[in-house]
Amino acid sequence: MLSNLFKPVAWAAVGVSMLTFSAVAQAQAGYPGNKPISILVPFAAGGPTDRVARDLAEAMRKAIPGATFTVENVPGAGGTIGPTRLARAAPDGYSLMVHHIGIASTAVLYRKLQYKPLEDFEYLGMINEVPMTLIGKPQLPANTYRDFENYIRANAGKLNLAHAGIGSASHLCGLMWQSAIKANEAMTAIPFNGTAPAMTALIGGQVDVMCDQTTNTTSQIEGGRVKAFAVTTPKRLENNRLLRDYPSLQEMGMRGFNLTIWHGLYAPKGTPAEITKRLNDALKVALKDPEFLKRQEGLGAIVVTDNRVNPAEHKKFVAAEIEKLRPVIEAAKQFAD
Ligand code: ASP
160's torsion region: left (phi>0), alpha (psi -120 to 50) or beta? Predict the structure, then answer.
């Protein structure tokens, strides 16, 4: 009786999986055909992650002749809604995601995530590394890092720190910096859907401080729309024409402070190996595209070389990043549900 009852269900399940299998097999044969490949970005349009994704989409389009790429912004919850969506998308090569260090930091920060960062994705490879800058609204009276830190202390409780949600790079940077200067309570954190809207609020003076990738801050610093105070790399950015005169936080006494944001490309778990290989090969070509390199370099990003575009290497790297970030986040005692 029981087995009879189960029969239709079991056959239905086989039917569904055969359908999925044949849909994927069909997609594989003519991949990508004229169906657009969507690159999901877990933050707002116009911000650093979005910029990397849009530049990459253009370079990937050249690397896969005939392919079309679209970029879809799925912001929210510190960049965790996007990966949740990707983990549930069809593993057919038409859904990809550009994410950053947040894929590692949220693994520690969030007690409950709807996806497993190391299990639910195919790692296609790393894209670039980007330093961060500590910046303030243009109306701040401080012009040097020292004056800035003194100003923060003198105005404890009155200032706002903008970030892109718990788990974002700007949040992580703010957390690390405030705990390094022992001023955890000095500022009220204001979350945005990404650092593009946060930057607008900073330029307008509605928030006071932010830490963000150079890919978003460079033109604003250059245009005098925000003030820069320090960089998050261990040493000054000597090769960066615009930022080379700003001190590193390590130089300012924060021993061991070292935060560089990296970006990577991901697909849902189960995307066929032929397709992930095709995408990985295309990624390697795209990262050598002269226009892509020029744009990234101009924004202070360092595009990685082939050995880091390796899926297995990138996954190993993310696993190591999770372990590296664990004590930092635990020390700051900030978790989210
Ligand atoms: N830079 C942002 C972050 O802080 C995200 C973004 O808007 O790209 O993670």
Answer: beta
Q: Please give the domain boundaries of the chain with CATH numbers for all domains.
A: 34-130+261-332 (3.40.190.150), 131-231 (3.40.190.10)
| Integer Cα distance of 332 and 329 in angstroms | 5
pLDDT in tens, 104-136: 999 998 988 999 999 999 999 999 999 999 999
Closest listed residue to residue 260, CA positions, set 319, 196, 176, 136: 176
**Residues whose CB falls within 8 Å of the CB of residue 334, separated by 6 or more in sequence, listed in order:** 109, 166, 175
Percent of the chain with pLDDT over 70: 90
The CB of 44 under 6 Å from ligand 1? The reply is: yes
Please indicate whether residue 213, judged by its CB atom, sits closer than 6 Å to ligand 1: yes
- Classified as helix, coil or strand, 231 is strand
How far apart are the C-alpha atoms of 204 and 187, rounded to whole Å? 18
Half-sphere exposure of 302 (CA within 13 A, CB side): 15
Query: How many A from CA of 210 to the centre of ligand 1?
Result: 11
Find the farthest-apart pair of alpha carbons in the chain and give their distance in angstroms, rounded.
Answer: 80
Q: Is the CB of 168 under 6 A from ligand 1?
A: yes
Ligand 1 pocket, 47 CB below 6 A?
yes
Over residues 187-201, the mean pLDDT reads 96
Report the alpha-carbon distance of residue 166 to residue 78 in Å, rounded.
5
Alpha-carbon distance of 40 to 86, in angstroms, equals 8
What is the spatial distance between Cα 1 and Cα 130, in angstroms, rounded to a whole number? 62
